[in-house]
Structure formats: C-alpha cells, structure tokens
Amino acid sequence: MSFSPPSPFNITTPFAFPPNLLPTDSSPKWMNKADNAWQLMAATLVGLQSVPGLIILYGGAVKKKWAVNSAFMALYAFAMVLVCWVCWGYQLSFGDQLVPIWGKIDVALEQKFLLEPAFLGLFPNATMVFFQFVFAAITLILIAGAVLGRMNFYAWMLFVPLWLTFSYTVGAFTIWSTDGWLTKMGIIDYSGGYVGPRLTKDRERFPPNNIILMLAGAGLLWMGWTGFNGGDPYAASVDASLAVLNTHVCAATSLLTWLILDVVFFKKASVIGAVQGMITGLVCITPAAGVVQGYSAILMGLFSGSIPWFTMMVVHKKSKLLQKVDDTMAVLHTHAIAGTLGGLLTGLFSEPHLCELFYGSPGKYMGLFVGLHRGTSQSVSHGFRQMGVQITGILFVIVLNIVMTSLVCLFVQLIVPLRMSDEDMEVGDEAAHGEEAYAIWGQGERLENSRFSNYNDIEVPSKGPGSIELA
C-alpha cells in the first residue's frame, strides 16, 4: 500500500508503509459495514427510549413522592434485563429450537458465537444480541408503567428476571425467531392485576409533578422509535427508510387526533393527552411500519388517536369493571389496545410488494383490503387467512401474558409482598429508598425529623444555643 504525501513535503516519490505497519481491516468479508453501523445506531436509539427516555417520562409523570421510585424501577429493569439476556434470555428467544415456542437455554457470551454472522442480517451476533436486548428491556420498563406508585421494589427486583424468562422469551421466539410457529404460519409483526391498587386518594388524584420533564422523556421516546422500527429490516435499506417515515407520520397524526378530540369534548388542549396520543400512534404503527403505504399510516394514526381515546376517556370512566383496574400510566389503553389495533390494521393494510421487501417471500403475505381489491378467489383467500393469522397471534400473546404474569406474581408473592404497605405508600420515595427527588428546603437537605432520613443516624456537634443535634 502506498500514498503520495501532501505538497508541503515536496517529495515526488511515493511513500511505502513497512510490511509490519500495514493498516489492517478487522471486518470479515461477509459483513456489511453500513448495515452493522445502522443496526448499532438503531439499537442505541431504542436504548435511549428507556435510559433516559422512560426514566425521565416516568419521573415527571407521577406524583412528586414517587419520582425516584418510578425512575429507579426503569433503571433497574434495564440493567437486570441485560445481564439475564446475555446469560440465557437471547438464546431462549432466538437460539436453536427446543420446543415450538422456546429456544434451547445457552449463554450469548462466547467470542466464537458473538463474532459469527447473525441469523438474519450482514452483521455479527454481538450486534444482534444488543439490538434484541433493548427491545426486551423496554418491554419490561413499559410494564412498570402499570404498577408505579404501588409495587414493592423488592418484588419488582424478582419480577423482572422471572417475567423476562418465562413470558417475553416465549413470545419473542414464537413471533420473531425464524423457527417460531407463528413466524412459520406467516404472522406480520414488523417490529413486536395481582399487585393491588394504590391508595384511594392517589387513584382519585395522581397529577404529574413535572410536565416539562415528562415532555422531555416523551420526546426521547418518540425520536427513539426511529431505531425501534427502522432497525427491524436488519439492513440500511429502502424498507427501513419507509418504516421510519411511516412511524413518525402515524405518531403525529395520532397526537393531533387525540388533541382535537380533547378540545372538542373537554374544551382543553391537554399536554398529557397529546403525549398519550403520540404513544398510541407509535405502538399502533409498529407491527405495520415497513409494510404499509403512507396513506395507511395516516389512517392508522386516525384510528390510534381516536379508539384508545374513546376507551380511556369514555368506556373506562363508565365501566365499573375497568375502574377496578389500577393502571398508573394507562398502559391498558396506550399499549394493549393500541397494539391490538395495530395488529388488526396490519392485516387489513399490508401491501404484498412491501412484505416481499421485508420478508423476501413473494405472495405469502397479503392484507385483506388488497386481496378484496384484486378480487380473485386466491387473493381474497390470502387476505382472510392473513387476518386469521393476525388474530391468532394477538390471542396467543394475550393468553401467554395473562397466564405467565399471574404465575410469576403468585410466585413472587410467596417470597415478598407485591404491594407496598399503606404506610410506605403514604410517604413514597423516602420510605422506599430513603431518598427524595426534589429539595424541599435549604441546600437540598431533607427534614431532620423524618424517621426515614439517614440524617437520623448522624451525630452533628452542637454549635451553641439554638443549634439542633440529631441523634
């Protein structure tokens, strides 16, 4: 290898590197550097949705007394999921098949494995392990949103690894692994209360302590969704570009739809409502992001901004059954209902040629509307079959999560109470962690007379009359 030095050197003969100093390329020939770089970037964007995105969103969206606890639940889950993921979670989700719904247990730590090509995509397994980890982590952190302000933190510490192992990995293998039975059936998924209630007064009034902070977290969640959906083709491809655009179009449409409904029916432009609409749009478009046209993304935004709004603002308030469900961050409406809606609309709007770009299987995937439009008996049959597969997948995930979550909660309850005591819930962060989110006097010190404060264990020398001594 040689090069001609710049003109200031005034040397006319090329310079040759000594053989032992020749630059080397550590990338194997099979790896696509652009795809690998994009996949790592997409994974990082998804990670930022959790840390710090949902940490900030949760910390600002709850009562002041729960800001530390809510943020800490997210931070803990992110760390715990990563350790479990590389030790056994990844191979259970994407490893060699053990049974049709689960992979063989193994680690994802061996250098030989991590540097080999991933099961899909022109990049190493190390990249795929990290990319799939951030999806697992944000799933657990979203679950936390339903139990903020009431779940015992020690119970949460046990719940996270157990739910990851016995619920998430089963769903991941079934839907996203190439060996999963729903995958083989042809499901289109572009990307994927035992605790007891809060105190009555917290359920009746649970205002956010910092709406601006909440908006900052929501913004990170929105922008991070670029990697959430843009990374799922496992390539820096045209399909990834389409998925990113559709994601943001649907989210914006959903936000505006929710906002308009709030203004029309409640005469107030609610910031919190706008954030809810943004989230329902992001959740709804996720299974369809790269397999539907832009017009469909707008329609999905209209549906995701109106149907969850109706279930939350009308049905929930009138249903005695739903009012018994204590869902701190309205996860039922923003994720369960919006996600179900997205799965169904994917079965209606998916385009065969876009599905071929993503799955590489011509003619296998076809939305019902396309099948009806083409009019042939085969196309109509394909369309109805796709809707049947989508509904099967939705029912499977619902049953899996209900059963496994219930069993995990029952097991955890044998070891530690799931719900905080009424006394601890009355106090909040200081009772749970001995810390508070915001200074309430002086230079950030806590009140000396608090029985939860560490200051109670510190002796401060007396400085004369009027000084306070802490025993």
Task: Briefly characterize the structure.
Residues 37-438 form the Ammonium transporter AmtB-like domain. This protein is mainly α and 471 residues long. It has helices at 33-61, 67-94, 111-114, 125-144, 153-175, 181-185, 200-204, 211-230, 238-266, 271-285, 294-318, 320-323, 331-349, 352-359, 368-374, 377-415, 422-427, 429-433, and strands at 2-3, 15-16, 97-99, 102-103.
Question: In DSSP terms, counting alpha (H) and pi (I) runs of 4 or more, how many helices?
Answer: 18
CATH fold-level name: Ammonium transporter fold
- N- to C-terminal separation? 74 Å
Helix/strand order: EEHHEEHHHHHHHHHHHHHHHH
SSE blueprint and pairings:
Blueprint: E1 2-3, E2 15-16, H1 33-61, H2 67-94, E3 97-99, E4 102-103, H3 111-114, H4 125-144, H5 153-175, H6 181-185, H7 200-204, H8 211-230, H9 238-266, H10 271-285, H11 294-318, H12 320-323, H13 331-349, H14 352-359, H15 368-374, H16 377-415, H17 422-427, H18 429-433
Antiparallel strand pairs: 1-2, 3-4
Helix pairs in contact: 1-2, 1-4, 1-8, 2-4, 2-5, 4-5, 5-16, 8-9, 8-10, 9-10, 9-11, 10-11, 10-13, 11-13, 13-16, 15-16
Keywords: Membrane, Transmembrane, Transmembrane helix
Transmembrane segments: 37-59, 71-91, 129-148, 155-175, 211-228, 240-264, 271-289, 295-315, 394-416
Domain Ammonium transporter AmtB-like: 37-438
